[in-house]
């Protein structure tokens, strides 16, 4: 079976953006875990890639659109 692609730069930038949004809202990882039943710690540490569905849920939770989320994120 073919190995899944993983753009380390993109994964890291998404993780950093998620952490930034969480902290701007004065939320802890525990808040997110309780509210969304999602271990955000592994995502913020760039240990795991996330699905678009999960990213969409997090954007809704943080009150930003996907367009706002990706603004300024580059893959290189």
From TrEMBL:
Q: Which CDD domains match?
A: HTH_XRE
Lineage at the top is:
Bacteria, Pseudomonadati, Bacteroidota, Bacteroidia, Bacteroidales
What this protein is called in its record is: Helix-turn-helix domain
Domain named HTH cro/C1-type is located at 18-69
Q: Which Pfam families match?
A: HTH_31
> What is the organism of origin for this protein?
Rikenella microfusus
The record's GO molecular-function terms, alphabetically, read: DNA binding
Segments forming a coiled coil: none
In which domain of life is the source organism classified? Bacteria
């Amino acid at each position: 079976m073919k190995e899944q692609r993983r753009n380390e730069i993109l994964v890291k930038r998404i993780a950093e953006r998620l952490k930034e949004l969480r902290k701007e809202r004065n939320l802890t990882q525990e808040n997110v875990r309780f509210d969304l039943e999602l271990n955000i710690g592994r995502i913020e540490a760039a240990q795991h890639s996330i699905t678009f569905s999960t990213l969409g849920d997090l954007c809704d939770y943080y009150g930003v659109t996907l367009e706002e989320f990706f603004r300024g994120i580059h893959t290189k």
